[in-house]
Design goal:
alpha+beta, Structural Genomics Hypothetical 15.5 Kd Protein In mrcA-pckA Intergenic Region, Chain A, Pseudouridine synthase, three-stranded antiparallel sheet, 7 helices, 312 residues, 15 strands, 3 domains, elongated
Length: 312
């Protein structure tokens, strides 16, 4: 087999594990160690990096019986904010996971791959919670994926979220520097807790908070994250005493149910979490130019804000 764009820059072991689905992992490593796998007619180690055009020879291998494949994800495109030959930025709706797994059969990435069957490479650069809407970045080349993920890890990206919280946010509280600890509950669901800075399993997490608009009993915030921990904004705002409206895990459950039924607020129904990734800035992986993307508030969020009472 000849390495294409999807395999460019990948390690040999990861390349084979992706292609030889159904072959036990131990067997893949065994044939690499034995020298039966050849790259450009020569022996290669598991950590050998492949490039486009490399010829990989694999001995005959037997696959294990796999359960019947689930029905493919339905093809779907999403609103495009930016696209070129290197990357794709979309405006993800709330309520859709970014990928399948953990009880979800498919997500954005599976739907996009079905909608773009000729795309040789399409991978998520980062994640958004299922309940969060807004800017989601995907790579169309492995080189772009590596470069962009490096920027996310080194905090060279600017990520700002709009969040509507319960109560009057104290304007003086502009920096939240609270460590977070990720756990699994009895049902296997992910849960994140704020912990002391010296907690052995805590990870330092920093959110910058700015008041964008004040309402009677609620505050619209701009939250810029300096670290990208799981549920970071949701937990940081909740531990400060101002949970996000509609948050199903860390929010005010009674209020969530009330608003979902359309009670109060002049009958407006609001049955999602008010957290929206509205701005993302990064350096283009090929040109190096600074790219700044924005996504307007979804209609249901804008409508809700228009119905909230103004402060006296």
């Amino acid at each position: 087999m000849v390495v294409d764009e999807a395999g460019d820059g990948q390690r040999l072991d990861n390349f084979l594990l992706r292609l030889l689905k159904g072959v036990p992992k131990t067997h893949v490593y065994r044939v690499i160690r034995s020298g039966e796998v050849r790259v450009n007619k020569g022996r290669a180690a598991a950590d050998t990096r492949l490039t486009v055009g490399d010829e990989v020879r694999v001995p005959p291998v037997r696959t294990v019986d796999r359960p019947a494949a689930a029905a493919p994800a339905p093809a779907r495109e999403f609103p495009v904010l930016f696209e070129d030959e290197h990357l794709l930025a979309i405006d993800k709706p709330a309520g859709i996971a970014v990928h399948g797994g953990s009880g979800v059969s498919f997500g954005v990435i599976e739907q996009l791959r079905q909608a773009r069957p000729t795309a040789s490479f399409l991978e998520l650069v980062h994640r958004l919670d299922r309940e969060t809407s807004g800017i989601l970045l995907l790579a169309k080349k492995r080189s772009a994926l590596v470069a962009l993920q490096d920027q996310f890890r080194s905090r060279d990206t600017g990520k700002t979220y709009a969040a509507l919280v319960i109560g009057a946010w104290p304007a003086r509280l502009k920096v939240i520097d609270v460590a977070l600890h990720k756990t699994l509950d009895a049902r296997g669901e992910r849960h994140v807790q704020p912990v002391a800075a010296d907690h052995p399993d805590g990870r330092r997490s920093i959110s910058l908070v700015q008041v964008a608009q004040v309402f009677e009993g609620f505050t619209l915030l701009d939250v810029t994250i300096k670290t990208g921990r799981t549920h970071q904004i949701r937990v940081h705002l909740a531990q400060a005493g101002h949970p996000i409206v509609g948050d199903p895990k860390y929010g005010d459950f009674a209020l969530n149910r009330q608003w979902a039924r359309g009670e109060g607020l002049s009958g407006a129904r609001f049955d999602r979490m008010f957290l929206h990734a509205r701005r993302l800035a990064f350096d283009h992986p090929a040109s190096g130019a600074r790219i700044e993307l924005s996504a307007a508030l979804p209609a249901e969020c804008a409508t809700l804000l228009s119905r909230l009472p103004q402060p006296h």
